[in-house]
Amino acid sequence: MSQPAVPENFMSSTPQYQPYHASLKRATNAIAPVWPLDQWIAVNPWWGLRHQPIEQVSDALSRRAGQPMTMPAAFYRSAWEAGRITPHDVKQALRLGGYAYSEQRLVDYLSSPPDAVTPLRSAWDTLENAAGFDPLAESCASYFDQHQQRWPNQSEASLYGFWKRTAQHDLRWPKALRQALLALPNETSEAIEHIAADWALTPEAFEVLAHTLLLRVNGWASWCQGIGWHSAHQQTAAGITQLATMVLAWEWLGVKQLPRIQQSEWLAQWQAADATLPAQHEALWCWQHAYELGYQRALAATLTAPSATHSTAPDVQAAFCIDVRSERFRRHLEHAAPSVATLGVAGFFAMPVTDAATGPERAQPRVPGLIKPTYRVGVAQPQKRGVQRYQKESQRQSVRHAKYAPLSTFTLVETTGLAWGWKLIKDTLRKQTSVPQCEAPAGLFHTYDGEPIARHEKIALAKNLLTLLGSPTASLLVLVGHDSQSDNNPHHAGLTCGACGGQGGSMNARVAAALLNDPDVQHALQHVAVSLPNPFYVLAATHCTLTDRVHVYRDEQMPRALEPALAEFENGAQRAGDATRSERAPALGVDETNHRERLSTLAMRGADWSQPRPEWGLVNNAALILAPRARTQGKVLEGRTFLHDYHPAQDPDGKVLEGLMTAPMLVASWINLQYYASTVMPPLYGAGNKLLHSVVGGHLGVIEGNSPQLRIGLPDQSIRDGNTLYHEPLRLTVVIDAPKDRIEAILARHSMLADLVNHRWLWLARLHNDDVDVYSSEGWQTITADVTSGVC
Fold it and tell me: Can you say where in the cell this protein is located (predicted)?
């Protein structure tokens, strides 16, 4: 797990101020990073707070941001009255959670919830002559906008310095404020010490104040935190410490404007802000727990029901990404083509690569956001075609840059208007999107020196992937990456993949297929205890999650004897696509009953420039299952579960499970809590209305309307259908088919995982025999679908 490094100048050389720098570091660590739009990944916005119980963090945020991390009481009252939450669920939530409520008192709470907690107030909240503009967000938008703003910036090396300089030329600032700001030290550490000395708050209160103020510019704070995750050099100049200094300085200027009596009240408020307060929202968390138990009961009933396994050995095995959208397709594919068995694996297929062939500007990482690419991949194509492709992309980049030049509004439209007019007409008349495609890879090269990877590295990569797949038994293995298509959509990358930097998995599948088809690699695998069928061949494919069409990248080298197996897979995939589209269509408002018309309508959604919701993405994700496919085959999981194959008998030392719990489990939790946060706290963690979005910096992020605040998380259209909430806000339930001592040993070795489980950021369960047990402070408790038994 990569973490932002501490800048060299962060800690003060003056011992008396070190507690304040440490407090500020804790405040900034509470802000999670974000990635740019074109490399978007779902992020747990409370990642830096995982060492605290979720209820405690919720109480703190209700004071600091004005809202707890649950839905309002009316939401749970509706679920209770509709039977979505049963009395059984409430009883079990009270017992397992140790909440200090009786059943009747908990039900009464829904009718008369207490008043909301009064949030902490900034000095600017009490000023009648408040600035009326947002200088912090505006400065961030200007400083980081290196794409749309083409005037020479001549900016200082730091964000804080840039803010101080530009403020002196902003006439919206009163002269007294500009002079006071100019008087602050130019170094962030010295400015922080100056402010801390002036206020004389306790370090604990200073931490609460800093975190509260950062939440007011949460989008930009998250962006600055992301800079620290990606580059220690950039962090020094533009990391979150720079922004923290700015918010403290702005508050300091506000306090200076207050009358003396209000200054005393302001100091008293923050001096008491770190006091331990009684739990404010315990009842809501009990209802949230009961709401989640209702889902867990249904899931346990499904998982413990008999499986519809195939009795014959498969002719084809198809490995899909664990993405929840693959669950529906896999279920229908196995039904449509009984000779095809499906597997679940992380969709980058254990290939930590960056795609260097995407264009002349920069390579695109094709790995989960928490992993650094080890290798880069090129594209195999005739030299002439490669040069033409590169030149074409270079021309496109030149036009993009020209569009953002200072005078482009006066010159570009007049000189290229007709050409762009034809393009607009052509794109508008385009009726459908096609299945995303990618070129064949030329090979793998080291990212740091460009040298081809060594033989032993190829073997290690191949062995790792085959181990994750559980040693394939079919002669034909198809690695199915997924992708999506939509036009005029800044959040397209989030629909493509919620984990791998917003990139589809087709290139990874093609790289892995080429690697596994290498005769030398196959021969070497026999000497490291990896047995393969004979013959054995691997093909790559793309599953478009918008249309549920699958495109197979055929290979002339494939043995002819495998053609019937491939035909069976392709025919089954076509039938599975029809069935999956039929299942998905009603939720998208697509009411065509004919298969061809339904496919056409879905494909048109991706080509429609005005479509804010081409597909639902990973909405309603609720569980991750690490188990053999036999435990879930044929079972309707409603497109809500991440499915990763895991065979406990093949993993006696638990090393494979340890890798799954520290990687796919973590990624699934981040996706889950991204959706949860955007649902329960949309003003802070949601991106707002897509109809009002403007893109900042080409790919940096979006703002809503004329506000300069950066909006992060998911847009309203990704979780709501109009005014109706479509996403069910549930914490992730992780179900593992493994002995409990193996799971507990991994938790004991990884405090990060233990924090997530023990502090209830997710639920951990194990599947064994005919039961599902959930982990709690009281040990493992059995979940039952029988609501009348009173036993959990």
Answer: Cell membrane
